[in-house]
Amino acid sequence: MASTIRVRAQANGPTTDVQALIQHPMDSGFVKDSDGNLVPPHYIETVTFEHAGKIVLTSNWGPAVSKDPYTKFSFKGGAKGDVLNVTWVDNLGKTDTVAAKIA
Amino acid sequence: MHAGSSESHDLTRRATLRLLGLLGVVGMAGTALADAPGWPVEAFKQKTEADALKQLYGKPFEVSDKVTLEVPEIAENGAVVPVSVSTTLEGVTSISILVPENPFTLAASYKMSDATMPAIGCRLKMAKTSNVIALVEAGGKIYAASKEVKVTLGGCGG
After folding, report:
1. What is the pLDDT averaged over residues A8-31?
2. Which uninterrupted H or E stretch holds B45?
3. Is the pLDDT of residue A100 over 90?
4. Cβ-Cβ contacts under 8 Å, B126 against chain A
5. How many helices (H) and strands (E) would you count in chain A?
6. What is the CATH architecture assignment of A5-101?
7. Per the structure, how many domains does chain B have?
8. Tell me, what's the ipTM?
C-alpha cells in the first residue's frame, strides 16, 4: 500500500534538511459539504520524525494546519543512507509511517 | 522450524496489540479511544492567546527581535498560508504558532530535540485577517514575534 508520507531528506554537511508532505484531508469540522452538512473533523494530531533512536521533531497539530500538510525543518547529524522514520496519528486513531532514506 | 516461526510471529502480534492497547487505540476497529499520545488536548481547545499560552507553556512571553516570523502580507488563499519561524536564540525546545482570529487559537506546536535547528516551515489555515504569533521556548523562557496577515479568501471554506 502506498504511503501517505513523502519525504525528502538531504544530508547537507553537518545537517540534514527535511521536507515532508503528507496526504491527509485535515478536515477542520467547520466546512460544509454540498448537501449543507458539516464534514466532521479529521486531522492529524501528531507527527514524529525519528533518527537513530532519537525523536528530532514532534509536530502537534490542530485543524488549522492546511490540507496535505507540509513540514520543513533541519537537524544536526544524519548521513546519506541513514533512515528517518516519520509517523503520524490522527484524531480518528488512523496512522501511517514511512522509513525514509537520507540522500 | 515451522512451529518456531509462527510462534515468534504470534509474539510480535501480541506485543503490538498490547502496545496499541496501551496507546488507547483499538487497532482492529480503527476507532480511537483517546487522542494521539502526548497531544496537548487542552491547548488546542483554547480560544484566546492568553489561554493558549497558559496551556502550552504556563508562563508569559516577551517580544523578541531574535525571533523571525515570515508570513505573506496578504494571503490570497486563507486555506494555505505559508508560515516560517526561525530564531537565533539558543536552547530552543519548542516553537508554537497562534492565530487569534481562528476558531481555535493554537494552530501548531513543535517540540525540538537538542539536535534540531530552531526553525520550522509549515502551511496553515486562516479564517480571516489576523495576527500570526510565533512563540519560541528557549532556555525555559518564551519569546514571541507577531505579524498581521490580511486574508482575502477565508480558509474555513465559508
Report:
1. 97
2. helix B41-45
3. yes
4. 64
5. 0, 7
6. Sandwich (2.60)
7. 2
8. 0.96
